[in-house]
Amino acid sequence: MRMRTTDINKIKAIKESVLNLSQDVGLSNMTTAKIAKEASVSPATIYLHYHDKTDLLSRLYEEVKVKLHEGLDQAIDQTQNLEVQIGQAIRFSVAQYRKFPKQAYFMGTLWSNQELLDQHAIEFGNTMESPLADLFVRIQQSPEYSPLSHDVLEIFFTVPTLVLEREPKMDEKELNQIINMVTKAIKK
Q1: Residue 57 lies in a domain
Q2: Residue 182 and residue 92 share a domain
Q3: What is the chain's Cα-based Rg?
């Protein structure tokens, strides 16, 4: 069954509303009524496409995660040493954050509130084939780096985007300092 253009536009409006409201009111204060009002659709329209708020957040989480990681495999040059690869991964994340700030904020908020996601979305996030996950394995296997868990490495790698949230005009010098700090923190 082919979706009509009006349905596609309504779904886009719903998703955009979620991204806007995640910044404006937060995920826990976001209701389907608020989403519908922001999207200029009826609440029933949301339920035509999603079971509930959890389903909506979960499907959007999966979609945004793919979007934000798109191109990461080309950004990380595995022929370089791990320190260079770490810098490449962090620079990519910062570039994606700058390119898609609403989506990056949404992902960061959901990463801290995984109870708002369904099991499928959590598993998708944990098992998604990712060059970043591969990089984490290489770091974990390297004798130069501390044996840190995937979760701890992920936290270190989010530091630059957390700084970027507070200092949107972060320059190249500051980014290099943060990359050096992260690299030193995870080395033995």
Answers
A1: no
A2: yes
A3: 18
